[in-house]
Design brief:
heterodimer, A: mainly alpha, 6 helices, B: mainly alpha, two-stranded antiparallel ribbon, 22 helices
């Protein structure tokens, strides 16, 4: 029986991730060469361990010819669904950034109020009244815990700071 | 040493209505604060430290210790219901607590958590009261080589026992060590992997990392799945009362984990975060149902919950007896002792034994109040699992971003949390251990410092890690932790 040939396009995703991680580890190892011995020793040991284990993982994945995460992905989702999942991940990351922008611009109270309504709609919540109510409850809880009880410094918002000047 | 009169006068102080009101209020407040992802006792306690300034030493110390306990209790609730540990001390609780909540047994999981925490708390207190001189003496025998090997053992145990590929878990752990080494090296003053950034020179902060890896990555998972609510059944079944009884059917797990928590708490530098994982993994290894850990097993909740609460009292042992804080929170607690003009150590145990007895008695009462209050409050908290994801996700994002920002008011902390969240999501998706990553991230500073100190003491000889009795034993345990599962697997395959 002749050994089965594996083309690069057949390689599971995790093998490519392993290769990328080895490249990153190699790059970081080169950086440590400029550090004093005491500062370099521990990260170098860790990096050598990472390269060895990652290479072993890539080899084990190629040898076994399967990739647990990749297989699940291939059987459960077609490419279109995978793309949709990535879009959802990007949406959530965008929402996190959006909340930070809202918090800095409108302040915590108004920022949270607006954000929960907008994010709820973006994530598909349909009942307008309960969305507004939920937004009010979340905002009140945040204000009570962080501002009243814990007396934490929270941003007032550039908008109100600017308005306060006039 | 302790006298009956001392306990009676301690009871008289604790049962004064003002002090009972403080214990009750702080218990409930701590539960609420602990529920917030990323807000742990280390964040809450410094905020309360100035409030204790005008109080009598006994009630002041009770207030701080009760806050510590109740925040840890609260952290477990969000670990079970949202898969977002309120504190690192509850991270291992997610592994079986959250699957139970998803199966509609959130109430049972909370009951288990409450009772295990209660028993763990008592075992810890018993250790604090009766065993403190003996255990503290043993901790003194730990030298840098032992600390380093303990950190390595922690990572090996976690990588070998956590779900998924052992190799991928080690990769996760390796990167945890690496990310923790970003920033100024304390030994040489050299900035490592900072790429000229002032933020990176200060190191990657722990809290944004925890919030990102656990809270934010969970939001990604929740939204990506496209389900409407967390609970698959749409409602929670299984009562808290059933959960309260369950730990007594697993007495061995309950007491073994409590003792592990107590033992780890005593070792300076090791905290609840290490205790809950060690207890969980020990149980996963010893249990005949080891292959079902991570699927919603009661023992998987009992072990971390009993250990993290026992660890709290354990951490106070070296703080009170030797003046060596068992961890960050214990260091804040020690600050509380010192602002009242007290000196931990021999003086505290001889001249101010009344204050210590009051503290112990207050903690016993608080443990009961937390069990009762927690069981009542948790019933309402459990309802969050049937909230629509489209409401829950923005709430977690808002709380996570505010919590991250509130600690140091730094925008880049929020960015770090978001990046950690995205990394955590992909780690979960492709099976690279996010939990080994976090544990390694927590252990790295102790590991690196101890590694250098051990080498300095041994004049550069790596033999020191093997030749010292305790360190050598830890090395042997590391080897066993790696070899035993592999041999077991091979034997199982042969049998099949």
């Amino acid at each position: 029986m002749s050994p089965k040939k594996i083309s690069l396009s057949d390689l599971p995703t995790t093998v490519w991730i392993d290769v990328a991680l080895i490249a990153v580890a190699g790059f970081l190892f080169v950086l440590t060469l400029d550090y004093p011995r005491m500062a370099a020793l521990f990260p170098q040991l860790v990096l050598v361990m990472i390269v060895a284990v990652t290479a072993a993982d890539a080899l084990a994945t190629v040898r076994s010819g399967r990739d647990e995460a990749g297989d699940a992905e291939a059987s459960d989702e077609d490419r279109g669904a995978a793309r949709q999942t990535h879009r959802k991940v990007a949406l959530v990351a965008g929402l996190m950034v959006l909340f930070y922008v809202f918090m800095m611009f409108f302040g915590v109270v108004l920022g949270t109020l607006l954000f929960v309504i907008l994010a709820g709609k973006a994530l598909g919540y349909r009942h307008k009244v309960s969305l507004v109510l939920a937004s009010l409850v979340i905002t009140a809880s945040v204000y009570l815990i962080f501002q009243v009880i814990m007396k934490t410094y929270l941003p007032e918002g550039y908008l109100f700071t600017a308005l306060g000047r006039y | 040493m302790y006298s009956l009169e001392g306990w009676v006068s301690a009871a008289a102080i604790v049962f004064q209505w003002q002090n009972m009101a403080i214990i009750l209020a702080i218990s409930l407040l701590g539960l609420t604060i602990g529920f917030l992802p990323g807000i742990g006792p280390l964040t809450a306690m410094p905020l309360f430290l100035p409030i204790t300034y005008g109080m009598e030493p006994g009630p002041a110390l009770i207030m701080l210790a009760v806050l510590y306990m109740s925040v840890t209790y609260g952290g477990s609730l969000s670990a079970i219901l949202l898969n977002t540990p309120g504190t690192a001390a509850s991270a291992a609780t997610c592994l079986d607590g959250y699957p139970m909540a998803k199966q509609g047994r959130g109430g049972v999981a909370i009951g288990i958590s409450m009772m295990s925490s209660f028993v763990g708390g008592f075992v810890g207190l018993a250790g604090l009261i009766f065993l403190s001189p003996i255990i503290a003496d043993f901790a003194l025998k730990f030298q840098p080589a032992e600390y380093f090997m303990l950190a390595v053992l922690g990572l090996v145990l976690i990588a070998a026992s956590a779900r998924g590929s052992v190799l991928k878990n080690f990769i996760g752990g390796g990167f945890g060590f690496l990310v923790s080494s970003v920033g100024m090296d304390l030994m040489t003053g050299k900035a490592r992997f900072a790429f000229g950034s002032t933020f990176l020179k200060g190191g990657i902060p722990l809290v944004p990392m925890i919030i990102g890896l656990f809270a934010f990555s969970e939001v990604f998972v929740l939204v990506a799945k496209g389900e409407e609510t967390i609970s698959e059944k749409g409602e929670l079944s299984g009562s808290i009362m059933d959960g309260l009884k369950l730990p007594f059917r697993h007495l061995r797990t309950l007491f073994r984990s409590s003792l592990i928590g107590l033992g780890i708490g005593v070792i300076p530098g090791e905290g609840s975060a290490v205790a809950n994982f060690t207890a969980y993994l020990t149980e996963a290894r010893l249990s005949p149902k080891s292959d079902r850990f991570g699927t919603g097993l009661p023992e998987g909740v009992i072990a971390p919950e009993a250990s993290n609460n026992a660890c709290i009292a354990g951490a106070l042992i070296p703080t009170l007896t030797l003046g060596i804080p068992g961890g960050g929170v214990a260091a804040v607690f020690m600050g509380g002792i010192m602002i009242h003009g007290l000196n931990p150590g021999f003086e505290l145990f001889t001249c101010h034994l009344d204050i210590l007895t009051t503290l112990y008695f207050g903690l016993i009462v608080a443990n009961f109040l937390l069990l009762i209050g927690g069981s009542i409050l948790s019933r309402h908290a459990a309802r969050v699992t049937v909230l629509p994801i489209s409401i829950l996700a923005p709430s977690i994002i808002a709380l996570g971003v505010i919590s991250t920002y509130a600690i140091r008011t730094q925008a880049l902390d929020v960015v770090a949390a978001i990046v950690a969240g995205i990394a955590g999501y992909f780690m979960k998706r492709y099976g690279y251990g996010a939990i080994p990553f976090l544990v390694a991230f927590i252990l790295a500073p102790i590991a690196e410092r101890s590694f250098h100190q051990a080498l300095l003491l041994s004049e550069g000889s790596y033999w020191t890690f093997v030749s010292r009795p305790i360190s050598g034993t830890l090395v042997a345990l590391c080897v066993l932790a790696l070899v035993v599962p592999a041999v077991k697997k091979r034997l199982k395959n042969r049998g099949a």
